[in-house]
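Chapter review: from sequence to fold.
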Amino acid sequence: MLFETLQKDMITAMKAKDKQRKEAISSLISSIKKVAIDEGCRDDIKEELVDRVILKELKTAKEQVDTCPADRTDLKEEYTIRYDVIKEYAPAMMSPEEIKALLVEKFSEVLATKNKGQIMKAVMGELKGKADGKVINQVVAELCEA
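The token string follows.
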């Protein structure tokens, strides 16, 4: 996801007077800028950094939706809209089948050890930002049992 795309979409939301969408995109932009400044690349924001921040914000938004009290429907609706907007910009995640195929293809020698910790350590560097950690963990567990 390119940073410029986010900025254009925020302007579009502002023109459409879509307050909730604008606020969600605006918070994404500010989080990305903050991380870029912290990492010393304020003028040259890479796509990898944008994706990483979007995934982090998506996880936070999901937690907000999940932990919101049931009687606070107004808050739950607001959090859900925010989650949906952020999800539009999140990079596509690999499916369990794709993860399993990649593991069998690239990490067969590590899989042979059946050591889950060692496998996860080897795999996470390759799949970080491309697949959900929980899904990777489940696939590795299945492969260790087989």
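Two observations follow directly from the output. DSSP finds eight helices and no strands in the chain. The chain has a mean pLDDT of 84.
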